[in-house]
Amino acid sequence: MSITGRITDPMHEKADADRARPPRERLVLAASRLFYYEGVRAIGVERLIAEAGVTKATFYRHFASKDDLVLAYLQTKETYYRAVAEPLAVGHPPAEAIDLIFEAISRHALERGFRGSPFMNAAAEYPDADHPVRRLVASHRAWIRELFEDLLTRLGHAEPRSAAGALLMLYDGAMAAGYLDASADAHKTLLDAVRLIRSSS
Predict the structure, then answer these.
(1) Burial 88-102 (b: 16+ CB within 10 A, else e)
(2) Phi/psi class of residue 156: alpha, beta or left (left: φ > 0; alpha: ψ in -120 to 50)?
(3) How many CA atoms lie within 13 A of 7 on its CB side?
(4) pLDDT tens sequence across 100-130
């Protein structure tokens, strides 16, 4: 995502552009495409190795297991989301920052190829809440909630923690609706709901 709300995620570049990259990066790029579009459980190590153009020995030199590669994939997603939201949070007044973050989310969800939140998708495939993948997902969600709570506190909201929880639910809903509905009408509904929550006291 960029500040204008467009996704510019290098993890989704074509495989042909990956061959000059280091093996570990090629594996993460391949995992990002395959896990996001086809699901984690559906993709085996052999498929990842073939897609990345590496050997099995190279795979296990960098990742002890497929789950370790799942974590690396999600960590790259965490980096991209933070790279969008954090500059907005510090570079704009809090009300404007909240609106801009959700504007980016809304436009992201309308883009071709959008398949929902990579974190929610991964969590659905790992039912054990104590699994490292689920702990990473929980950490990502905690960061989003804390970001919203900090902005709402700076805004002078009477109940910033509760309102941050409501914004997190809208965030989740925007990700799900963007995949399931792909409706441009949802854009205005989302932003109206965000402004109602952030302006309430």
Answers:
(1) bbeebebbebbbbbb
(2) left
(3) 19
(4) 999 998 888 878 888 999 999 999 999 999 9
Q: Nearest CA to 89 among 22, 18, 147? A: 147
Structure tokens at 46: 């052999």
CA–CA dist 144, 200 (Å, integer) = 20
Q: How far is CA 68 from the centre of its chain?
A: 18
Nearest-angstrom CA–CA distance, 4 and 7: 9
Query: How many residues appear in the chain?
Result: 201
| pTM of the predicted model as reported, rounded to 2 decimal places | 0.85
Q: Which domains, and CATH codes, for the chain? A: 10-199 (1.10.357.10)
* Number of Cα atoms under 13 Å in the Cβ half of residue 15: 13
Expressed in angstroms, the distance from the first to the final Cα of the chain is: 31
SS3 85: helix
